[in-house]
Design goal:
198 residues; 7 helices; GNAT_dom; Aminopeptidase; GNPNAT1-like; globular; acyltransferase; 5-stranded mixed sheet
């Protein structure tokens, strides 16, 4: 009985936010991004790297520390992380995708695709790219490009009619090389903050 309990606990920890098989269906030839050398979600360029959905166990693999390289995360407990993972999984529409360095069992890159259900465009889906981050020490391996192209192709695979993002001015050129375009007359980002920015 003890082994069965342990097996169930282990199974829950390795639980994916979304089915990993979806990533195997992505066709990187559909992206305007140029990879030198060629890499993809199934072949990220190093045998010690894996591109996969976020797992419940990633609390212990540095997911929150990785996000803190992007913005303020706060002091999130395991229970808070676990509760948020459960809510995201059950509500659907959240596709947090990560890159893991399996040599050290740490996450080194991440991006989030959120999908909005729309009434417009014949009840279509719209994707939003959020929270793109790559660990500073892994720069130069095309991982930023890889994680963005992966979630962009994922949005297309899931039937989104478009994918949007907000970015700093200095990143516009980078995103343009991946197929994103500024839309004349429609390229403003506006926010209303309800908390104090950190």
């Amino acid at each position: 009985m003890g082994m069965e309990k342990n097996g169930n606990a282990e199974g829950k920890l390795s639980e994916y936010l979304y089915p990993p098989e979806i990533l195997k269906r992505l066709d990187f030839s559909k992206s305007p991004a140029k990879f030198h050398p060629k890499i993809s979600a199934v072949d990220p360029g190093e045998d010690w790297m894996i591109v996969r959905p976020l797992q419940r166990s990633d609390y212990d693999k540095g997911f929150l520390q990785l996000l803190s390289q992007l913005t303020s995360v706060g002091n999130i407990t395991r229970k808070q992380y676990d509760d948020r993972f459960t809510k995201m999984k059950h509500s659907g529409g959240y596709y947090v995708t990560v890159i893991e360095d399996t040599r050290i069992n740490k996450l080194i890159g991440a991006a989030t695709l959120t999908i909005e259900q729309k009434f417009i465009h014949n009840c279509s889906l719209r994707g939003r790219l959020e929270d793109v981050v790559v660990n500073d020490t892994y720069r130069g391996k095309q991982l930023g490009k890889l994680i963005v192209v992966t979630v962009s192709l994922l949005a297309q695979e899931l039937g989104c009619y478009k994918m949007s993002l907000d970015c700093k001015d200095k990143l516009i050129k980078f995103y343009e090389t991946l197929g994103y375009k500024m839309e004349p007359g429609n390229s403003n980002a506006m926010n209303m903050r309800f908390d104090e920015p950190s």
